[in-house]
Specification:
Layout: H1 8-15, H2 20-32, H3 37-56, H4 69-74, H5 92-101
Helix pairs in contact: 2-3
């Protein structure tokens, strides 16, 4: 995590997340797939925020997280992670995260 975040409080916040083990696996997977540092830097807060959102709405284990994907989208969580495509109206960062993470480990 220190490779992508220099502020200790940011690293501590990520490590204190209830989904930290999955976040750590996701970071390693992104690194192995040769994603650039900026991409990893942008994605991790989105994943941690999603975990916080799901926990606040009743999630108690990782296996139930897919149930919260649509709910988080309705609450605008995913749109916080990137810019909307003006032509399609789609959130490109959220779409990229969803596609790639489904092949990974979260």
């Amino acid at each position: 995590m220190e490779r992508y975040y220099v502020r200790p409080e940011t690293v501590d916040r990520i490590r204190s997340s209830w989904i930290y083990d999955s976040v750590d696996r996701y970071v390693r997977w992104l690194t192995e797939q040769k994603y650039n540092s900026r991409s990893v830097f942008r994605r991790i807060p989105l994943v941690v925020s999603f975990g916080d959102f799901a926990r606040a709405h009743g999630a108690e284990s990782l296996d139930v997280l897919p149930r919260y994907k649509n709910l988080s989208s309705m609450h605008g969580l995913q749109s916080a992670g990137g810019a909307e495509n003006p032509r399609t109206g789609a959130n490109e960062s959220a779409k990229a995260f969803e596609t790639r993470s489904s092949r990974c480990c979260i």
